[in-house]
Design brief:
Blueprint (H helix, E strand, L loop, with lengths): L4 H39 L20 E6 L21 E6 L1
Antiparallel strand pairs: 1-2
Length: 97
């Protein structure tokens, strides 16, 4: 007697059963990780209370500080300057409101 169609289908179902078991284990692992993550997050501190929020200073908002670098001119042909040879820091600060 020859092999029937049902026998061929039944023979191939062993690999699909293993594949379904692996997918099932992965789904369970993802769900366990999600529950574990939620528990860790629940143990953490809650959001800050309104009185814990940052406040503006009494003098009002602080303005931006704008700095512009002034180039240090080099004479062509000279060697590069080392940090201790540079004059000042070359930065001019300006407050802007």
């Amino acid at each position: 007697m020859g092999v029937t169609m049902n026998e061929q289908l039944a023979a191939g179902s062993g690999t699909s059963g293993i594949l379904l078991a692996i997918v099932g284990v992965l789904v369970v692992a993802v769900l366990l990780a999600a529950v574990w993550g939620r528990r860790i997050k629940a143990r953490g501190p809650g959001p800050p209370l309104p009185e814990q929020q940052p406040r503006l200073p009494e003098s009002g908002p602080v303005g931006d500080v704008v700095e512009s670098r002034e180039p240090d001119e080099l004479v062509p042909g000279e060697q590069r300057l080392t940090p201790h040879e540079v004059k000042g820091n070359g930065t001019a600060s300006h407050r802007r409101r």
